[in-house]
Amino acid sequence: MKFKDYYKTLGLTKKATNAAVKQAYRKFARKYHPDVNQGNTRAEAKFKEIGEAYEVLGNPDNRRKYDDLGANWRMYEQAKPGSQGHPFTGSNWKVDFRGANTPDNIFAGGETFSDFFNAFFSGQTAQGMYDTTHKQKTRPQQPPSEQTIALTLEEAFHGVTKRVTFLGQGQTQSVEVRIPPGINEGAKIRVSGLGQKPDTPKTNQEFYLRAHLEKHEKFTRKGSNLYLSVKIPLTTAILGGTVSFDNVNSRSLQLTIPAGTQVGQVF
Q: Which PROSITE patterns does the annotation name (predicted)?
């Protein structure tokens, strides 16, 4: 398994600010987006690499863990069960979400991150992956807690950070959760950082958010596609012409209307 240099993927150094990380991600995401590189498998692969890099560097906790990993990543990968000298034993390696429906790119879905990402940011803990002599007492398994989070189409497209509140251990707990770009309707997001207080037995309860996309006033989403109804003059429908409109990312697009266009025709 090859080490993933996420800074290099986004054209950054380790000194890059959070704003620079976001700016680099948006720059490359626009450049390699499947919508502007249709049929280009290399651009598609690059787009997924960019998304994976941003999942790590765009999240302060994940970025810190990635930076701490550094040159020790091979030791982490090759550590054997029962090893007492594992450099990350007891560390909590989690990302803000996990689930089969989590997309790696804008409205594409269905693909998974690289083996490197899954090995180090899959949501497992080092203590869970490698048996140690210092195990916490756990409470009996509790049913998972799940609630719905409403998202606008723009939030689903770009990704967003939201503060959510759960009821855990008899009290409400709040945490910020980063919603990844391109999340699908009904996607399940695993939330970390809840359900356990200091000096208390570890809880087995899991917390999830289920995404609900609110209806948009202009666009209709069907799978990975967005649909928009546009009114055109009768003369344009008969003779042909062009029509301009704004995409969900506020970018202006122009569509060529062929002569003889019929009502309800889809382009």
A: DNAJ_1, DNAJ_2
Token pair belonging to 130: 């490698």
Amino acid at 112: T
Cα 144 to its chain centre, rounded Å, is: 21
* Rounded (to 5) percent helix, strand, coil in the chain: 30, 20, 50
Eight-class DSSP state of 138: B
Phi-psi region of 77 (alpha: psi -120 to 50; beta: other; left: phi over 0): alpha
Global pTM value: 0.42
Phi/psi region, residue 138 (left: phi>0; alpha: psi -120 to 50; beta: rest), is beta
State pLDDT tens for residues 225-264. 788 888 888 888 888 888 888 877 778 888 888 888 888 8
Q: Can you list the alpha helix ranges (DSSP code H) found in 73-131?
A: 73-78, 115-121, 126-129
Selected from 1.10.287.110, 3.40.50.2000, 3.30.1360.120, 1.10.10.10, the CATH number assigned to the domain covering 1-81+103-133 reads 1.10.287.110
